[in-house]
From TrEMBL:
InterPro entries: Epimerase_deHydtase, NAD(P)-bd_dom_sf, UXS-like. It comes from Cyanidium caldarium (Red alga). Its cofactor is NAD(+). The keyword Ribonucleoprotein does not apply. It comes from the Eukaryota. The lineage of its organism: Eukaryota, Rhodophyta, Bangiophyceae, Cyanidiales, Cyanidiaceae. This is NAD-dependent epimerase/dehydratase domain-containing protein.
Length: 358
C-alpha cells in the first residue's frame, strides 16, 4: 500500500507530528506477515451470493480472508470449501455493531440486495447501509485499510438518462418502499467520499448492476433466480407489469473480476459502473429461460411493484478505460451454468404443481 506525504521510508513517522491517517497508512504498509501477494482481506457480506464468489477468488489468489456476515441472507454452506483453511476465518457479526480487525483491504458488501429482502425490514436495511458503512469506514481510517463499497445501480433510481453514466445523479424517490436501499446506498457513497476528503481514507466505489449466477437463493425474489426456479419446477414465470421494463445482467464471475480489479487499481476512487451493458426486457428474459427449460408452464402477468425502475443499462466506458474490464460471459451461457447448478441443488426435482401447471 503506497504511503503518501513523503512517508515512504521504513522509519515510523513521529506520532506527535503526523496526522492519524499518515500513521495508519504507515502501519498498514509495514505490517508483519503481509505482502501484495498475501494480503489480509475483510469481506463483509462474504457469505452472500456475490460475497462468496469474491471469497473464492481471493482465496484462490492466496490471500488471507476474513468474512464478517450476520447470515440474514448469507449462507454458511457457501463458505464450506474454506472452513478449516488456515488462511480463512468466518465471524458471525452484524456490521451495524462496531468490530476491530487488522486488515489491508475491506470489501464492504454487507446488505440484503434482493428487493424482497431489503424491503422485509426497511429500517434494518437503512441502518446496515448507514451505520454499517460508518463502522467500516471508521475501521478503515483507524487501520489504514483500503475500502471498496459495493454500491448499486439503484442509486440511479428510475433513470431519466439512458444508459447510465457515473456522472448521472439519478432519479430516486426518497420516501418510497425501495428508498431504504437506494437512498441507503447513496448515503453510503456520500460517507465514503466524506471520509476520503476529511480523513484521506483510501476508497473505491463500485456501482453494481444486476448480477446473476450459481448460488443465487432460489426464492430470493430476484428475476433471474425466480424465473429459473419457476421454470425448473414446471411453474409459470411471474412477470411483473407488462414485462417491457429492462435490465442488463452480468454473470457473477465477471463482476468479481471487476471488483478485484477496482480494489487493486491505484489512484482511483470511482464510482465506477460494473455491469453487462447488454439490455433485455423481462419478457425477453422470460423467453430465453423458456427456451432453455422446456417444462416451464408459460408466463403469468402480475401487477407491477411500486417504484420499479422502467429501464437500466450501464455505460461501462470508465471501467473499460480505467480497469481494462468488460464482461465476457453472454447471458445465454451464464444461464446454462446457473440452470446446471440449480438442477444440481435439486431444484425442480419434485415438481410442486403449486400453480396448477404441469
Ligand atoms: O419474479 C419476478 C421478479 C422480478 N421481476 C421484475 O424484474 C426486474 C428486475 O427485478 P430484480 O428484483 O431482479 O432486481 P431489481 O433490478 O429490481 O433490483 C436489483 O437491482 C440491482 C441490485 O443492486 C440488486 O440486486 C437489486 O436491488 C424488475 O422490473 C422486477 O419487477 C419480474 O418481472 N418477475
Amino acid at each position: 500500500m503506497p504511503v503518501t506525504n513523503g512517508e515512504d521510508s521504513d522509519a515510523c513517522p513521529d506520532p506527535r507530528s503526523q496526522p492519524l491517517d499518515v500513521l495508519a497508512r504507515w502501519r498498514a504498509a509495514h505490517a508483519p506477515n503481509r505482502s501484495a501477494a498475501r494480503r489480509r482481506v475483510l469481506v463483509t457480506g462474504g457469505a452472500g451470493f456475490i460475497g462468496s464468489h469474491l471469497v473464492d477468488r481471493l482465496m484462490q489468489l492466496g490471500h488471507e480472508v476474513i468474512v464478517v456476515d450476520s447470515l440474514f441472507t448469507g449462507r454458511k454452506e457457501y463458505l464450506a470449501p474454506w472452513l478449516g483453511n488456515l488462511r480463512f476465518e468466518f465471524i458471525r457479526h452484524d456490521v451495524t455493531e462496531p468490530i476491530v480487525l487488522e486488515v489491508d483491504q475491506i470489501y464492504h458488501l454487507a446488505c440484503p440486495a434482493s428487493p424482497v429482502h431489503y424491503k422485509y425490514n426497511a429500517i434494518k436495511t437503512i441502518k446496515t447501509n448507514v451505520i454499517g458503512t460508518l463502522n467500516m469506514l471508521g475501521l478503515a481510517k483507524r487501520i489504514g485499510a483500503r475500502l471498496l463499497l459495493a454500491s448499486t445501480s439503484e442509486v440511479y433510481g428510475d433513470p431519466l438518462q439512458h444508459p447510465q453514466t457515473e456522472d448521472y445523479w439519478g432519479n430516486v424517490n426518497p420516501i418510497g418502499v425501495r428508498s431504504c436501499y437506494d437512498e441507503g446506498k447513496r448515503v453510503a457513497e456520500t460517507l465514503c467520499f466524506d471520509y476520503h476528503r476529511q480523513h484521506h481514507v483510501d476508497i473505491r466505489i463500485a456501482r453494481i448492476f444486476n448480477t446473476y449466477g450459481p448460488r443465487m437463493i432460489e426464492n430470493d425474489g430476484r428475476v433471474v433466480s425466480n424465473f429459473v426456479a419457476q421454470a425448473l419446477r414446471g411453474e409459470h414465470l411471474t412477470v411483473y407489469g407488462d414485462g417491457q421494463q429492462t435490465r442488463s445482467f452480468c454473470y457473477v464471475n465477471d463482476l468479481v473480476d471487476g471488483l478485484v480489479r477496482l480494489m487493486n487499481t491505484d489512484d482511483i476512487t470511482g464510482p465506477i459502473n460494473l455491469g453487462n451493458p447488454t439490455e433485455f426486457s423481462m419478457l425477453q428474459l422470460a423467453h430465453c429461460v423458456r427456451e432453455k427449460i422446456p417444462q416451464c408452464a408459460g408466463i403469468r402477468f402480475l401487477p407491477p411493484t411500486p417504484d420499479d425502475p422502467s429501464k437500466r443499462q450501464p455505460d461501462i466506458a470508465c471501467a473499460r478505460q480505467l480497469l481494462g474490464w468488460e464482461p465476457q460471459v453472454p447471458l445465454s451461457q451464464g444461464l446454462d451454468w446457473m440452470v446446471e447448478e440449480f438442477r444440481a441443488r435439486g431444484i425442480g426435482d419434485k415438481q410442486s404443481g403449486a400453480d396448477g401447471a404441469c
